[in-house]
Amino acid sequence: MEKNRKEYEVGDQAIDSLINELAKRSSSVETEHLLREILTTTVKLGMESGDRGDLKLVNNALKELRYSFKIFFPYRAVKKVIIFGSARSKKESAEYKMAEAFSGKLTKKGYMIVTGGGPGVMEAGNKGAEIGKDFALNIRLPFEQKPNPYVHEKDKLINFKYFFTRKLIFVKETDATALFPGGFGTQDEGLEMLTLIQTGKSRPRPVVLMEPKGSRYWSAWMDFVNNQLVKKGFIKKEDLNIFRIVKTVDQGIKYIEDFYRVYHSIRYVLGLTVLRLNKEISGKKLKFINQEFKDILTSGEIKVSPPTKKEILENEFLNLPRLAMNFNLRDYGRLFELIRVINEV
User: What element of type H or E holds 337?
Assistant: First the structure.
C-alpha cells in the first residue's frame, strides 16, 4: 500500500533527498511518510510564498498544534469534558455555581475538564475540578481574557494566538461538550460543535446544554431553533438528537455517562462505518436496530463484525466487539438515535 502511494515531492532531487533523510532521522517507521509530507509542504511554502504574513500564520499555527499535542498526549486514554460559557458570569451567578459543581462531580468520577482558561464559567470549571484533572486553553486577547487563577497545574495551561487552532484542540482532545449560558463566543463554539457533528466532521459525542434553575437561556434558544430552523426546513427534526438540554448537574453527568455506556467509538474504513462497543449487544437488539434504522443504510444490514484490517494495522481497540454498516454519512441525527438505542439497558 505504501509503495503504491503517489509521492508528494518538491520536484528538486537534491531537496527531496534531504527531506527524506530528515524524515528518517526524526520519526518512526509508521509516521515517516507523514513527516516527509509535512516537511515537503513546509519547503513548498518557502519556495512558493513571498508573503511574510502567510508564513508567520503557518508557523504560529503549527507551533500551537505541536505544543498542544505534546501536553495532551499523556492523557489521551482519559475521557475529557469541555466546558463552554460566559467569561462575564459573576461568582454568585447560577451558571457559575452550576459549572463549578458539574466540574467537581465529573472529576470525582474520573473525567478530566477542559476550559477556555478565562474568567466566569471557565474559571468555575477549573475551580471545581480536582487538582491535576483540568486543562485551560486560553486565548490571548487585548481585553477580558486573562488566565484564571484556578488552573491547578501550570503545564496544563496553553495560550493560543488563534481561535481556529484553539477550537481544533477543543474538539480533538475532548469526548463530551457542556454549554452554559454565554455570549457570542459561547454561541460560536456551541454552534460550531453542533455543525461539526451534524456534518460528520466530528465523531459522535454527548453535547449537554446546561440550564441553571430559573434560567430560560437554552429553552428560549430552543424556541428559535424549532420555529426558525426546523419549521422552515433549514435543519431536520432528527438533528435535535445531537444535543440535550438539562436542568441539573446530575442530569448532565448522567447523559454523558449514558452516551458511553455501551457505545465506545466510531471508525470509518473504506466506506464502512464501524461502531465499537464496550460490550456485546443481544441478537434481539441487533434485529430491532436493523428494522428501525434501515433508512440510514445505503445497502445491506447492520452486522456484528471483527476488527477491520485497518484497525488491526493501527492496533485500535482490538478487544472490543463491533457493529459494521454501510451508513449513508448524512443522517447523523438518526445515528445518534441508533447510539441511544444501543446504550439502552
Answer: helix 332-343
Here the cell at position 262 is 455501551
* Gap between the Cα atoms of 41 and 9, Å rounded: 9
Structural contact between residues 139 and 145, judged by C-beta atoms closer than 8 angstroms? yes
Q: What global pTM score does this model have?
A: 0.93
DSSP string covering 69-94, please?
A: HHHHGGGTTS-EEEEE--TT--TTSH
Element (H, E) at 265: strand 263-269
The CA R_g of the chain, rounded to the nearest whole Å, is 22
Residue type, 328: N
CA 61 vs CA 18, 97, 110, 157, 255: distances in Å: 24, 34, 31, 17, 34
Task: Evaluate whether 245 touches 211 at the Cβ level (below 8 Å).
Answer: yes
Same domain for 200 and 94: yes
Print the domain residue range for 87: 74-259
230 Cβ contact partners less than 8 Å away, ≥ 6 residues apart: 236, 237, 239, 240
CATH number assigned to the domain comprising residue 216: 3.40.50.450
Bridge pairing between strands 244-246 and 297-305: unpaired
In this structure, are residues 9 and 40 in contact, taking their beta carbons and an 8 Å threshold?
A: yes
pLDDT at residue 7 in the model: 84
Q: Could you give the C-alpha distances from 188 to 81, 165, 326, in angstroms and in order?
A: 18, 15, 32
Same domain, 165 and 291: no
Spatial strand order of the sheet with 112-115 comes to 157-160, 134-139, 112-115, 80-84, 176-179, 207-210, 244-246
CA distance linking residue 22 with residue 220, whole number of Å: 56
Q: What is the pLDDT of residues 258-281, one digit of tens each?
A: 999 999 999 999 899 999 999 999
- Phi (first) and psi of residue 112, to 5 degrees: -110, 155
